[in-house]
Write a structure and sequence with these properties.
Layout lengths: L17 H12 L18 E10 L5 E12 L5 E7 L5 H18 L4 E7 L8 H15 L8 E5 L5 H15 L20 H20 L7 E5 L5 H10 L3 E6 L4 E3 L6 H11 L9 E2 L2 H4 L3 E7 L8 H6 L1 E6 L8 H9 L3 E3 L1 H4 L2 H15 L5 H26 L3 H20 L4
Parallel strand pairs: 3-4, 3-5, 6-7, 6-10, 10-11, 11-12
Antiparallel strand pairs: 1-2, 2-4, 7-8, 8-9
Helix pairs in contact: 1-2, 1-14, 2-14, 3-4, 5-6, 5-12, 5-13, 12-13, 13-14
């Protein structure tokens, strides 16, 4: 499995509950919504929450039970869309927040989806491949009543990958009696996956950083970059930064924190991490402390691990010029305020890491039409959508004199609540 951090060095014991952070972000945008604020409570109440038992027979013959979730936060603009996370820290509170952020992200990018998210509270590294398949298939069967190509479309997230999506697609298809390739995205190419999907989130992080650099005269070429999280998002973003002239000076994954002021050889680091499951023992950089990691002087900081990583304490110590959020919800609202006071620009998750769901949208469209695009077409369409969204959000931030995050929430909430108002309430 890929992109599978543990709950060790990432977790700050004092991190805020994710749902509380999401609610505070919604409250902050309410004064900017005009008459649509009448509907603001819609965004504070998930439309549907499903909690399921996931029992399996383990390889040793014992029966084990795990808890799974699927939350559909809002479906006013289209079917639910959001990943499935396998991680020991998965909780209903977390999944609710992640679903809420998907609502905002999809609306901010103009994608015809609502927000959803799912997860199972397991450490995938503690299971065999056969056990992971059984967990995935049982979980899919349990949530099958709420997912579907025109209802709710899961995708990979932390601890899951294209193989997970293949099992989910097959399980759903067997249960309904015919192949439904569009029930998930992030699938293998052979099963209707899209070219460019695996790199899309990391590529989107780079595009957002580049556009921010253009606006603030902080060019990527020659910039120092620090990346937290070295899975499918952080690893690919680091590689693309390096390919465009940046110098990645520090990396952190669940097992190790390393730095090299002269710049880390990212392809070598990716090879090491793929072979050993971690950056631990990588010879191309020196180990440093977690505290030192957050205080490195750099132009770009990319938190691409888990939510709640940028606490107020860390925000006071940062020496970065621009933060580009590769993870979902890495910055608490209190930390956001400190960063704004310190004139550190934050490109929020609902914009910066939207590359993955954008190409998931392309995959969904291709599956419906059974007509597939080239990787060059995919990347060009991704670039166009992300640049247009970035420009609109940046302009709103300037006009309203608000942060980029608040501007993204203004645009997204206006779109979601306008749809809610126009649809009305039934019955």
């Amino acid at each position: 499995m890929t992109n599978t951090p543990s709950n060790l060095s990432y977790l700050d014991p004092a991190r805020a509950e994710p749902w509380a952070s999401f609610i505070e972000q919604i409250d902050r945008v309410a004064p900017h919504l005009g008459s649509l604020s009448h509907w603001i409570e819609t965004l504070k109440h998930p439309k549907r929450i499903l909690v399921v038992d996931v029992p399996i027979v383990r390889d040793d013959g014992t029966i084990a039970h795990y808890e799974g979730y699927r939350v559909q936060h809002n479906l006013s603009r289209g079917p639910g869309k959001g990943g499935v996370r396998f991680h020991p820290g998965v909780s209903l509170n977390e999944v609710m927040a992640l679903a809420g952020w998907m609502t905002i992200k999809n609306a901010a990018l103009g994608l015809p989806f609502g927000g959803a998210k799912g997860g199972v509270r397991i450490d995938p590294r503690a299971f065999s491949r056969a056990e992971l398949e059984r967990i995935t298939r049982r979980y899919t069967s349990e949530i099958g009543i709420v997912i579907g190509p025109d209802k709710d479309i899961p995708a990979p997230d932390v601890g899951t990958d294209q193989q997970t999506m293949a099992w989910m697609m097959d399980t759903y298809s067997v249960n309904i009696g015919h192949t439904a390739s569009g029930v998930v995205t992030g699938k293998p190419i052979a099963l209707g996956g899209s070219l460019g999907r695996q790199e899309a989130t990391g590529r989107g992080v780079y595009i957002a950083a580049r556009q921010a650099g253009i606006r603030t005269a902080v060019p990527i070429d020659g910039a120092r970059v620090v990346v937290q999280g070295f899975g499918n998002v952080g690893g690919i973003a680091a590689r693309i930064f390096r390919e465009n002239g940046a110098k990645v000076i520090a990396l952190q994954d669940a097992e190790a924190t390393v730095a090299n002021p002269a710049g880390i050889d990212i392809p070598a680091a990716l090879t090491h991490a793929a072979a050993h499951g971690s950056l631990s023992g990588f010879f191309g950089a020196e180990p440093i402390s977690v505290d030192d990691f957050w205080q490195l002087e750099c132009e770009y900081l990319v938190p691409a691990a888990l939510e709640g990583q940028l606490s107020p304490q860390r925000a006071r110590c940062l020496r970065a010029r621009i933060i580009v959020e590769g993870a979902n919800g890495p910055t608490t609202p209190a930390a956001d305020d400190i960063l704004r006071e310190r004139n550190i620009l934050v490109i929020p998750d609902v914009l910066a890491n939207a590359g993955g769901v954008t190409v998931s949208y392309f995959e969904w469209v291709q599956d419906f039409s059974s007509f597939f695009w080239s990787e060059e077409e995919i990347n060009a369409r991704l670039e166009s959508i992300m640049i247009n969204a970035f420009d609109a959000i940046w302009q709103t931030a300037q006009e309203r004199q608000v942060s980029i995050r608040t501007a993204a929430f203004i645009i997204a909430c206006q779109r979601v609540l306008a749809a809610r108002e126009q649809r009305g309430l039934y019955p």
